[in-house]
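tokens incoming
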């Protein structure tokens, strides 16, 4: 086929001259473009001529199979020699062959586009027109030429595209040769290395991925991400800033995925398309369901099927979102699915991106679970705190009451309460020996028992003994230090079960400690309590306090102690109960440098 080879060499020379003319005279492109379109027609004619030559080529005696193989070999040589991009498509628009010039212009590795849908390279607004031209060429056999835009690997090309029907040896169906002549793009120099394959670019990409993991860790480990449900939003916002045009998070709720977060490109208003993506049903997405089922991510470097992510009123979601590349990874261990979408004009996601985003998905899942667990525990702690301390103190006739309560470093086990009893009012204060939820629940049980039993018994000591019996029967293994008092007129009868003695602050500043005593509740079936009756005159203040107050320590390890408490109280003579408890707390705060390890309770009752 010497004539054809000679014609191809001549075509290559003229195309090279047109490139030089375009570079030399960028302001006067019209003559160059007209000539380029003429050369495009010449290329299409040469393809048709090559087809006819192959058809007429004599077959060897060895049989039809060898002749077909020889024709295919000749066609491949012609395809490689063409100086303009040539893509061989089947009837469905799937790429079957490309020549080296196509790889160079589009920036794809050899063979990357083979097996992929060519219309996905075409600008979204012109895909329908391309499919119509393709169908017409296949049905009529008449060539077609038209202008369109191709987008791939972050590059956009305006091209003049010529379609010619082919009959390929050994192929049962007819093919189409698409010849593309770029008209508005600066072609890379022959043999130039793709920028994304350079060592520097690879190192930069690796650094960006490592930076993403570092920044994601900071976002998810922030204290606010535990206190409030913001981890998923913050992570999605970080990904949308640099890694994707769209970020969608679907979390599993009640066994099914539910759309939780949608981050759209900045140039999209909140309404319209964004609302359609938000309202779309994740269960209609094959991608989401596949990732949930497999428990592993997937990457579509080029979207072949626009229906994979479901539909909205305007059509397939991936189509209306302008998706060129998609990456989906599980959140946690099948707690949800994170979907990232890039448009056609951005470099596609790669396998290296999939690896780092799978780690990000795992981190997000751990953060969401930690936040959920933390909030559950916080709600439980709040409920337990509410069960060991009243929200407001009631008015006790003839007295003023005030209290301060500071939780420690763990769930509180101290309690205090003021409640009505038969013929008067009662109060109680104490705490289980221990920390955490179990100790708090035991304290809540004791507090509730004292309150309930005081309705029927008029003696706090009888109530204390019954609570002890119940606690021993429950077999919690914990003991509780407690004190309970019944107020009737000016008399207060108190029963102490191993609790610190109360303090009586007199109007002249004198301080006297009560007897206290007894054995903590829950140790023995037979309770051992200390009982005494105090008379509270107007102006006198009865003060009760927790173990956490007097055991607070300073930086030298010295305990706060009862002597320091007595000194503070003596300076509060004649003060209201609210002033007294605040003064004690302020002094303890100064003494311990603001540190609080165990719960602190201070309760004051002043006769008026």
């Amino acid at each position: 086929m010497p004539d054809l080879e000679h014609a191809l060499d001549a075509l290559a020379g003229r195309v090279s001259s047109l490139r030089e003319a375009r570079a030399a005279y960028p302001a006067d492109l019209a003559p160059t473009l007209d000539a380029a379109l003429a050369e495009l027609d010449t290329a299409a004619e040469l393809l048709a001529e090559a087809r006819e030559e192959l058809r007429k080529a004599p077959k060897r005696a060895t049989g039809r199979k060898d002749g077909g193989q020889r024709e295919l070999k000749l066609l491949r040589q012609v395809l490689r020699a063409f100086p303009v991009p040539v893509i061989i498509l089947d009837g469905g628009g799937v790429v079957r062959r490309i020549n080296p010039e196509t790889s160079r212009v589009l920036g794809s590795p050899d063979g990357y586009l083979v097996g992929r849908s060519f219309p996905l390279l075409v600008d979204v607004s012109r895909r329908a027109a391309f499919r119509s031209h393709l169908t017409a060429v296949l049905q009529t056999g008449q060539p077609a030429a038209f202008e369109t835009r191709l987008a791939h690997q972050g590059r956009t090309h305006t091209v003049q595209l010529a379609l010619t029907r082919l009959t390929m040896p050994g192929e049962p169906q007819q093919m189409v040769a698409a010849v593309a002549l770029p008209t508005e793009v600066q072609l890379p120099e022959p043999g130039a290395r793709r920028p994304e394959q350079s060592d520097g670019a690879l190192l930069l990409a690796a650094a960006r991925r490592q930076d993403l993991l570092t920044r994601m860790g900071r976002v998810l480990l922030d204290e606010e991400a535990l206190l409030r449900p913001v981890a998923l939003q913050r992570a999605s916002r970080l990904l949308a800033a640099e890694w994707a045009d769209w970020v969608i998070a679907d979390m599993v709720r009640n066994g099914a995925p539910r759309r939780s977060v949608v981050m759209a490109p900045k140039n999209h208003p909140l309404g319209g398309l964004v609302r359609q993506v938000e309202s779309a049903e994740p269960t209609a997405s094959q991608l989401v369901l596949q990732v949930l089922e497999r428990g592993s991510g997937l990457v579509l470097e080029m979207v072949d099927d626009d229906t994979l992510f479901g539909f909205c009123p305007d059509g397939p979601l991936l189509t209306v979102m302008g998706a060129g590349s998609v990456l989906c990874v599980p959140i946690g261990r099948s707690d949800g699915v994170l979907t990232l979408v890039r448009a056609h004009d951005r470099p596609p996601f790669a396998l290296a991106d999939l690896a780092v985003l799978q780690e990000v998905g795992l981190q997000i899942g751990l953060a969401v679970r930690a936040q959920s667990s933390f909030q559950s525990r916080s709600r439980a702690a709040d409920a337990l705190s509410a069960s060991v301390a009243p929200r407001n103190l009631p008015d006790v006739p003839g007295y003023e009451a005030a209290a301060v309560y500071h939780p420690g470093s763990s769930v509180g086990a101290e309690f205090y309460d003021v409640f009505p009893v038969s013929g008067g009012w009662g109060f109680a204060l104490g705490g289980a020996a221990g920390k955490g939820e179990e100790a708090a629940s035991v304290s809540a049980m004791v507090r509730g028992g004292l309150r309930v039993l005081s309705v029927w018994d008029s003696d706090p000591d009888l109530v204390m003994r019954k609570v002890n019996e119940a606690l021993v029967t429950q077999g919690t293994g914990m003991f509780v230090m407690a004190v309970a008092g019944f107020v009737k007129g000016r008399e207060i009868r108190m029963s102490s079960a191993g609790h610190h003695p109360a303090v009586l602050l007199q109007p002249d500043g004198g301080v006297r400690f009560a007897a206290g005593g007894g054995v903590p509740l829950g140790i023995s079936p037979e309770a051992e309590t200390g009982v005494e009756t105090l008379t509270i005159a107007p102006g006198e203040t009865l003060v009760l306090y927790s173990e956490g107050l007097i055991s607070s320590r300073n930086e030298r390890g010295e305990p706060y102690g009862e002597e320091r408490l007595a000194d503070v109280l003596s300076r509060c003579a004649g003060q209201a109960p609210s002033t007294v408890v605040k003064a004690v707390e302020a002094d303890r705060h100064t003494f311990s440098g603001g540190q609080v390890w165990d719960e602190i309770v201070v309760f004051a009752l002043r006769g008026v």
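note: The radius of gyration is 42 Å.
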